[in-house]
């Protein structure tokens, strides 16, 4: 290792680090959502993430790494930071440990030692090129955190570019575009305009000659999705897409995710506050960084109906399965779910659509990896985070397919355009919105027809605070408890008493609590089962 470069970098890191001191006594952890907590506690963390991003890029021969500053659906005072790997994927799991170590280093000296230790352990040449790009959501703490990040990148002598305010999936897209620019399969133009154009073009091809899509009203959670969706709609044009955007006050920073947005609608199972819906019209809510979306509508009696991630996955799987059948290509579509998927959705996929399902633990990285094993892998968490992945070999099969008739050709063109319309890096509310609208337009369906594909089993999710959530160990994709001993047998005995009953308990990965999920044939029974299982945790 070139010693003078190393010395120079370490002294820069030590110098800048004094400007970003670590608050005493706080323990940080890089979890499924990166680092996420009060924005006021993140300055030192973000500075250190800058150092790590520089190393990660160097480890990967100067490929571009992304850093996103956002706290997604969390309240306005929170913020967060996540790293994006070169193909637009989440940071490789082994590096999460380094991130946690960097964030918790007690002193400047300890930090430089950790930096050097990672460089030496992974044989990283500190004199080699390093490229990082970053963006943020609309939170008030964002600009100061950007300044901390820039200091980190500068201290580690990385080249960087500031993409300012973007949705999380837009940054994932741009990272992948930059790193595939000179390959045989460039992903797209590495700019925000490139993103809009790619989606707009694909949407127009997919919906060409089909019924006029239903009008959709989008609640943007007063976050970054509002202005971005307007821009996207402008690129598509009002002849193709009729969209109203509400809850788009990005300057009213305290309204972000407040009484609106995807998380509010899904967890409360009700409309955003203040929305007055027309019966049978389509509505959607995004979260604060626009990587999640849920849909809903009200019927003639003003009853609320939620169309969540499971309903999106089922709709997408059905549509793609049918297109594959018409085209005659030899490809298989599969769906990845978690234990939180509604039992009716799993039954519909397996028994009616005859589509294979894989169940993984909670957390999109698990779903994403499992989806990559199918030719076309559909994955959604029930909360509305998800996407559809087309494997490289599926793309080659489609691109080289010789259609025997116009029907087949049409289906193959639609499948290829879907691969362009659907963000291949990460769940993307804007791209998922267009996907759903395109499918509804093909089927000439409104939200009610979509909802009728299957009926959700009533369900209840309860958060229970326990003494030690790490005592809760699971197996079978979190569907069964191994420890505390005896608890699973007790849950099994309770579940048996309910028609279509299902319940499981797992420790949350993002909060200090366990979650109880229960579903059953009726609302009353689902609630009762949830209460009984929660009661069995008393004293634990
Ligand atoms: P935890 O806290 O581990 O249940 C929650 C969500 C996940 C996922 C992560 C990351 C539920 C039940 N859990 O995880 O789906 O979105 O947050 O944000 O919705
Ligand atoms: Zn989000």
From TrEMBL:
A Pfam family reported for this protein in Swiss-Prot or TrEMBL: AMG1_III
Enzyme Commission number: 5.4.2.3
Keyword field contains Magnesium: yes
Residues noted as binding Mg(2+) in the record, renumbered to the chain: 72, 287, 289, 291
Any one biological process term the GO annotation gives: UDP-N-acetylglucosamine biosynthetic process
PROSITE patterns named among the record's database cross-references: PGM_PMM (PS00710)
Catalytic activity: N-acetyl-alpha-D-glucosamine 1-phosphate = N-acetyl-D-glucosamine 6-phosphate
Catalytic residues (UniProt): 72
Cofactor, free-text remark: Binds 1 Mg(2+) ion per subunit.
Metabolic or biological pathway, per its Swiss-Prot or TrEMBL entry: Nucleotide-sugar biosynthesis; UDP-N-acetyl-alpha-D-glucosamine biosynthesis; N-acetyl-alpha-D-glucosamine 1-phosphate from alpha-D-glucosamine 6-phosphate (route I): step 2/2
Cofactor: Mg(2+)
Record-annotated Phosphoacetylglucosamine mutase AMG1 domain positions: 196-294, 308-445
A single MF term (Gene Ontology): phosphoacetylglucosamine mutase activity
Keywords, ordered alphabetically: Carbohydrate metabolism, Cell wall biogenesis/degradation, Isomerase, Magnesium, Metal-binding, Phosphoprotein
Binding residues annotated for substrate, in chain numbering: 381-383, 506-510, 515
Coiled coil: none
Residues covered by the Alpha-D-phosphohexomutase alpha/beta/alpha domain: 64-97, 111-179
Protein family membership: Belongs to the phosphohexose mutase family.
Function: Catalyzes the conversion of GlcNAc-6-P into GlcNAc-1-P during the synthesis of uridine diphosphate/UDP-GlcNAc, which is a biosynthetic precursor of chitin and also supplies the amino sugars for N-linked oligosaccharides of glycoproteins.
PANTHER family: PHOSPHOACETYLGLUCOSAMINE MUTASE
Protein name: Phosphoacetylglucosamine mutase
The organism of origin for this protein: Lipomyces starkeyi NRRL Y-11557
